[in-house]
Design a protein that fits this description.
625 residues; mainly beta; Glucose Permease (Domain IIA); seven-stranded antiparallel beta sheet; 45 strands; globular
Length: 625
């Protein structure tokens, strides 16, 4: 049985190896134990109290994403394991228990199950290919009874077979959104707190230490000053670029981690520690913390790989953990003579999910070599983009004859030639609004393929926003914005692009066009779809698939659709005569597949298709004898 999860941090003890076994030594320790620890350090392999002992798929597979990782539109409440691009691998029961829920959908986690263990905790497996035979029989019978391809089925404890630890409960696959992988979550008895499986005995393999790809420094006291970026090469050389004019420098790190070279995938970092000599200025353990339902948004993880060093997370009197403390340290080091600065370097220590360490020693300087060119490398056609959770507008096109103007809310010209007043580089929308507070639209013309317009709007800290401009209105209440101080959007070919993407809000975002309104949970893109054509199926392909880990024949068809999409797997229905036939829909490839084991030779299949606009079509497909 997996150990019952606990919520403490790994502080207050040391681990040592004695006679091949791990021992925990409490604090305070006697001098004798300290000397013994030092003497054993070189001969004792690194081992953690909850060292991984158990693999969910029998074989060892590496991580593809980690607990609490920012995936752009959401935070990961579990972990994803690579399956080596294979399907049909047995997935094991994590402890003794029963299945309490089965789910199948073309979106999200695809085929998924919830396992209730004897410990009282619940385990969720997703992106499965098949359930085990007894579960599959129960589920398929209910699907057939209801005539649904998409279904969530709750099981009474007596309905589910009893499983022992290591019994096969399912087989790996690629259902839902994403490639071949296994998704795992662990929830407490009340089902309100997500726990990191890697911290309670599940093997989360990761052999590559994290790396800082870039650092960003800006002045909280004077946000109009441009950000300074430091390249990975300069950071490895011990340099951190900071403008000497910054009064309250703030820092964010773009950290990249992957678990293995053969299947590279960006992971979330486990912990970040920044100290100056013996003084700890920042410490955050992202993946150690349990995540409460409704309270899992973490403002310090931004734009996937960026981490803002704000308030620390570890309760320790030696950790100051406030941005102002770190700001003062950076500012003071900038003013030190070179020799004194070399004695007061910043030490950044990173750890990944498997606690592989990486260390950087940095000194703040006015410039570093080589300097970062991130903003200078933005595609000139990318007029509007999100970086560090802020909307930016790119003025690099000014060098190539692009004309830029600013308009107020009445579409009156505020500034006819912006290119004469700004550097020809990307600029934060907030910087534009500080210089021209009444600006609400930026127009781009001149030497540009298509004239463009970007709508901009100031964002107040925590205050409700009601923004109406042109044919659109947006209402939201932003979460305390660490970075965003403005909103922006542009429309091209009936497609609206909003920035900053991933903006955290305290409530849903209400968006309205003249003819429709809808609620969403994040800033993103949407488009007005004019689709009056019913979906259709393309040429039939006879292919092979997997069923319970064994090869099976499958009929596959590509869905031809004009843009409104298939909203629900139940919008695709198939029958042979009066017999309902299950159909699987893959939104990644826009394919449907029917397993031939469910078919009778010589009897045609009648397939009903419906898209998101309600357009319908019926097709007959012959089944070979």
């Amino acid at each position: 049985m997996r150990p019952v999860p606990t919520f403490g941090y790994r502080i207050g003890y040391f681990s040592i190896c004695m006679d091949g076994k791990k021992q925990r030594i409490g604090i305070p320790m006697s001098l004798t134990w300290i000397l013994l620890l030092v003497s054993l350090a070189c001969s004792c392999p690194f081992d953690e109290p909850n060292s991984p002992k158990w693999n969910p798929m029998v074989r060892e597979f590496y991580l593809k994403s980690t607990f609490s990782q920012n995936l752009g539109e959401k935070y990961q409440l579990g972990v994803d394991f690579s399956t080596g691009e294979k399907e049909g691998l047995p997935v094991q029961a994590p402890e003794n228990g029963v299945i309490v829920e089965l789910d199948e959908s073309p979106l999200g986690l695809g085929k998924a199950l919830v396992f209730l263990g004897e410990s009282g905790n619940k385990w969720l497996y997703g992106n499965l290919g098949n359930f085990s035979l007894p579960l599959d029989s129960i589920f398929e019978a209910e699907k057939k009874r209801q005539g649904k391809n998409q279904l969530r089925l709750k099981l009474a404890e007596l309905q589910s077979p009893k499983y022992k630890e290591y019994d096969t409960v399912a087989y790996s696959g690629s259902s839902g959104i994403g490639t071949r992988q296994l998704h795992m979550e662990l929830w407490d008895i009340k089902g309100l707190t997500a726990i990191n499986p890697c911290m309670v005995g599940v093997a989360c393999h990761d052999s590559i230490a994290p790396k800082i790809m870039e650092a960003a420094i800006w002045d909280a006291a004077n946000p109009v000053l441009p950000m300074r970026f430091t390249s990975a090469e300069a950071l490895e050389g011990g340099c951190l670029e900071v403008d000497p004019m910054f009064q309250e420098p703030r820092i964010a790190l773009r950290i990249f981690d992957e678990s293995q070279k053969s299947f590279p995938s960006s992971l979330g970092v486990f912990s970040v520690l920044l100290r100056q000599n013996t003084e700890v200025l920042y410490r955050k353990e992202y993946q150690e913390q349990a995540l409460k339902v409704g309270k899992w948004k973490n403002e310090e993880i931004l734009d996937h790989d960026w981490h803002y060093l704000a308030t620390g997370s570890v309760h320790n009197p030696n950790v100051k953990g406030f941005p102002t403390d770190l700001s003062a340290a950076i500012r003071n080091q900038m003013r030190m003579p070179a020799k004194k600065a070399s004695l007061n370097v910043f030490k950044i220590e990173l750890m990944d999910a498997r606690l592989n360490p990486a260390t950087y020693h940095l000194i703040a300087k006015p410039s570093c070599t080589p300097s970062s060119k991130r903003l200078g490398q933005v595609d000139p056609d990318s007029l509007l983009f999100t970086l560090l959770s802020r909307p930016w507008v790119n003025f690099a096109g000014c060098e190539k004859g692009v004309k830029v103007a600013l308009l107020d809310s009445s579409k009156q010209i505020l500034e006819k030639s912006v290119c004469d007043s700004v550097d020809h580089l990307p600029m934060q929308v907030a910087g534009i609004l500080r210089k021209w507070p009444l600006a609400r639209t930026i127009t781009f013309g001149g030497k540009i393929p298509t004239p463009r317009a970007v709508a901009i709007f100031p964002l107040s800290s925590g205050a409700p926003i009601a923004w109406k401009q042109d044919d659109i209105s947006i209402a939201l209440t932003p979460l305390r914005p660490v970075f965003p101080t403005a909103l922006a959007w542009e429309v091209r070919n009936e497609r609206w692009s909003f920035h900053p993407k991933g903006l955290a809000v305290n409530s849903s975002i209400r968006t309205c066009l003249p003819d429709t309104c809808w609620n969403s949970v994040h800033i993103g893109n949407f488009e007005r779809i004019n689709d009056s054509t019913a979906p259709d199926i393309g040429n039939r392909r006879d292919t092979s698939g997997l069923r319970f880990g064994k090869p099976t024949r499958v009929l596959r068809f590509h869905i031809q659709e004009d843009g409104s999409g298939i909203n629900n797997a139940n919008d695709i229905q198939a029958k042979q005569g009066q017999v309902w036939i299950p159909v699987e829909y893959d939104p990644d490839t826009h394919d449907i597949q029917i397993q031939t084991v469910n078919l009778k030779a010589g009897v045609p299949i009648e397939i009903h298709l419906q898209d998101g606009k309600g357009n319908n079509r019926i097709r007959l497909v012959e089944v070979k004898k």
